[in-house]
Each structure stands twice: as structure tokens, then as C-alpha cells.
Specification:
The structure is a homodimer.
Chain A lengths: L3 E2 L9 E5 L7 H9 L5 E7 L18 E3 L2 E3 L2 E3 L1 E4 L3 H12 L6 E8 L11 H11 L4 E6 L8 H17 L1 E2 L3 E6 L10 E3 L5 E11 L5 E11 L7 H6 L3 E6 L6 H8 L7
Parallel strand pairs in A: 2-3, 2-8, 3-7, 8-9, 9-11, 12-15
Antiparallel strand pairs in A: 1-10, 4-7, 5-6, 11-15, 13-14
Chain lengths: ~270, ~270
């Protein structure tokens, strides 16, 4: 267990940091913080406004502000801050300036809509967790596979189950769990599957509009194309009614290409 | 070669899209577009303003605008657009709306400053390339390992060498080359090394200031901590005077953890 972090044996009560990318007023973060109630000291640090699709963006050219924010979970009021910044900014600022001590676990979400397949790289929900793993803190990102509305009850129960297990066992250093929960009642969920990201892409389309001065502007939209829905993928698990857990890291090296490319020759360098 | 893209055998002149994250007026993109001169039809689509550290951000909540921009390389004027958006937006918009046909190669940079180790996930330069690989187009991101000023001559020559090789051989589908060029004259560069991302982190620090109303705001800064400078890493190669090429993909799955985690037990799901 030398490489694992956050494992059993801590004397003090765990500190759990809750973040998201839908903004501090979103129903998913209330469900997530509430589902952590009783597992430790819960703190919320989240963006003021929705930050979807910001990817792993951080704010370097503008200053960051944080304001205390009223936040109540079943057991009572907890400390919460709304941040003018991205999810990654929130995690950095929380750990460096706002929290009384280093967190034992960072949970992010519960995102409205899935974060699976290629979308993981665009996801602010995931990037909050990634930021934690860079700082060697175990992290879990939760997404509810429904784009609008719905009920976070089942997702909250699943979030608590997985958080309990991670607080107990720890995670290997640098690993984030990316969890997607199907839009089903808790009793209808078939179980939990450990998965890999499905291969997929977006078929882009830009909707062109004209402003009153006849200048074009474009709205990005597109259609998601799943290229790979085998059972061992995140998309496959979700489609079959399973909670998908994909262990994710932030090493982007394509290790299988390193050896192959060493045989390439270059002109004179 | 069934899995490779952009390989030899194309009849028509290659189309090369040039993007960056430092903005269309930066010296690095002029050096990069100029270094591609003669290799194909060169088009530039790049952000209006600096977009450093935007990560893989895309613009969904605002419309995107593009304006033609005067751009001249040694052989003459080329078509260029300045985009109010992120590097990933630029690549999507270029391919879907601005270019006369699908690019055969997307090159990004030349970034002012390195993009190595953990910084790859924050890099807008890399994200432009990643966006291309998601669309199955070979891509190369170039960074010049000097934070301010300097001379892009050696970097431009290296960029051309690597682009020639990739246009000739293709790249495996989904692979981006992340290239970092040391701040040395061309003749002093020791060669090219195929590397992996070094493990590293930032030791964050936030500088706190007060506004005239006595409210705090924070500037994110920090110190880079290299945890791993072995010879086979990007940082190791750069430090030793080699051009570093790291093959990068966008599958964030920690595959070595998938099997291990399948042995975990969960309460009742």
C-alpha cells in the first residue's frame, strides 16, 4: 500500500471537499454534499456560474475571488465558498487558502449529464478531480446520465457508497474515479462495473446566424458518435443499466507509441 | 498501416492547418506557418487573444466569431482567420466552416514556453492538436522552451523536419506528437528523443490582494516541481539539449487500474 493515498489508519475525521462544474447553486452539488453527510467534515468550494466544457482550464490572467455562500445539508449548515473561476481553480484555491487542512477526499458533481467516452477531456467535473490527483489527493467525479431535471436520489446513494469505499481503501496515487450513473431508480440499477473510456467522437455542426450588421457568428453544436459500445466501456455499462467507474489518470503519454517511434529516423537531428 | 492516417499516397497537395494558443499575433505562429511554407496549402486559424492554460476548453454558452486576418509567409499571403474562442474552438470551426477541404495535418504553436510533464493537461497548444486527433487528423504541437522573447529559428527548422516526416509516414489514429524544443541554436541541439511525460506537480501559491473596498482577491501562481527527470522523460530530454517528442493520446483510462479495481467489492450494487 506504499503507493496508495487516503487509506485507512487516519486518526482524525476525514475532510471531504465538494466541487462541481454546474455551479454552486446546481441541484447536483446539493445532492452530493448531502450524500457525504456524516462521513467527515464537509466543505463546498464551487464556481459561481456554470463552467461546463471548460476542460482543464485554470485562471492565470485574471484574479480569482471567493465569497462565502449559505449551504445546508441534512445535519446542518456547512462552510461553503462560491468562486469566480473554473473547477480546477476552485480545488487549488480551496486547498491553498480556504480549507482548515488538506482534504482526504475530493468529490466532484453530481454533474447534470454524463461525462463518458471522449467527453472526459472536456469535462469540468472531471478536471476538479484531476486537479486533486495532481496534488496527490484521492478524487471521485460523479455524473448523472440525464441532461435535464430528474432525481438525484439514486446518484446520491451511489456516491456515498463509492466514497465510503475510497475513504476506507484509498486510491493509487494519481488515480481519479470517473463515475457515471444511469438515469434509473436505485433499485433498478444492475450494479457497478469497472470500465474503460469508449472510443467516440463528435460530428460537429456550427449553426450560423447573422447579427443586425450582417456579420456571421456561429453556435457550436454536434452529434455524439459512439464508435465502441462494448460491455467493458463506460458507455456500454451505462446503456446496460450499470453504474460505470472508470479509473482515470493524467498521464497523456501514448506509451505503446514510444517504442514504435524510437525506430523513426530524422534528417539531421 | 490500416490504422494510420495521413500517410503517403495522397494525390493532392496536403492542406496544413496552423493554430496556437498564444494568439494569432504571436511570433511563434508566424514562425510555424513560415516553416510549413512549400509543404502544402497553409491556412491559419487561431485565437484573437492569448488563451494559455485554457486546457481543453470549448465554447458552448457563447457564439463564436471569426474574422479574416492579414497573414504573410515567405512565399506570399495566405488565408488566415482570427477567432473569438479557444484553440479547440478554432480547430472545430476551421474544419467545419472555414477550410476548403479536410486538413491532412494540424500543427499548433510554436508556443512561447514549454508544455511538458503535468502541464500538458493545461495546454491550449496541445488541446488544438488533441481536437484534431479526435477528428482523426494527424497533429503536432510545438513549444519553444523559453518563457519570454528569444529566436524561433531553430524551433521553426525542427517543426519543418518533424512535419515532413509526419506528412510522409502518417501517425497512428488518435496520436498527437507533443514537441518541446530547447532554447538552443539549431547547431547546438543534440538530436531528437522520443519521450514520456515526466511526473511533476505545481506547488501552488496564491498571492492575496485587497481591492479598494477591502475585499480579498487572489492571483494564482506557483512553483513547478519536477518529480522525475530521467532521460526517457520530456523534461530529461530538454534538460540534456534534445528535442523531446512525446506521443500523446486522449484516452485517460488508467488501464492498469481497471483489472485491479474489478476485485473491489461494493455494498449492494
Amino acid at each position: 500500500m506504499a503507493m496508495s493515498v487516503g487509506s485507512r489508519g487516519q486518526k482524525k475525521r476525514p475532510l471531504i471537499l465538494v466541487c462541481n462544474d454546474d455551479g454552486i447553486g446546481a441541484p447536483g452539488i446539493l445532492a452530493l454534499a448531502s450524500s457525504m453527510d456524516g462521513l467527515g467534515d464537509i466543505f463546498v468550494v464551487a464556481p459561481v456560474t456554470e463552467q461546463s466544457a471548460v476542460g482543464h482550464s485554470i485562471t492565470l490572467r485574471d484574479p480569482i475571488r471567493a465569497f462565502t455562500f449559505p449551504f445546508r445539508i441534512p445535519s446542518g449548515s456547512i462552510d461553503a465558498w462560491a468562486v469566480h473561476g473554473t473547477p480546477a481553480d476552485c480545488v487549488k484555491l480551496a486547498i491553498e487558502k480556504l480549507l482548515p487542512r488538506q482534504p482526504d477526499l475530493v468529490v466532484s458533481g453530481i454533474n447534470q449529464g454524463p461525462n463518458a467516452a471522449v467527453n472526459v477531456i472536456y469535462s469540468g467535473t472531471v478536471s476538479a478531480g484531476t486537479e486533486a490527483t495532481i496534488l496527490n489527493i484521492p478524487a471521485i467525479a460523479f455524473s448523472y446520465c440525464r441532461w435535464v431535471g430528474g432525481d438525484y436520489e439514486a446518484s446520491g446513494r451511489i456516491a456515498r457508497q463509492i466514497a465510503v469505499r475510497v475513504l476506507d481503501r484509498g486510491l493509487r496515487s494519481g488515480i481519479l474515479l470517473n463515475v457515471n450513473i444511469p438515469d434509473l431508480p436505485f433499485a433498478a440499477l444492475k450494479g457497478i462495473k469497472i470500465t474503460r473510456q469508449a472510443r467516440s467522437k463528435w460530428k460537429e455542426s456550427f449553426t450560423e446566424r447573422k447579427d443586425p450588421y450582417n456579420r456571421s457568428y456561429y453556435w457550436l453544436s454536434g452529434t455524439f458518435v459512439n464508435l465502441d459500445s462494448r460491455d467493458d466501456t463506460d458507455l456500454g455499462a451505462i446503456e446496460n443499466g450499470y453504474v460505470s467507474i472508470t479509473p482515470v489518470h493524467h498521464d497523456l503519454t501514448a506509451h505503446d507509441q514510444v517504442d514504435e517511434m524510437r525506430s523513426w529516423t530524422w534528417d539531421d537531428k
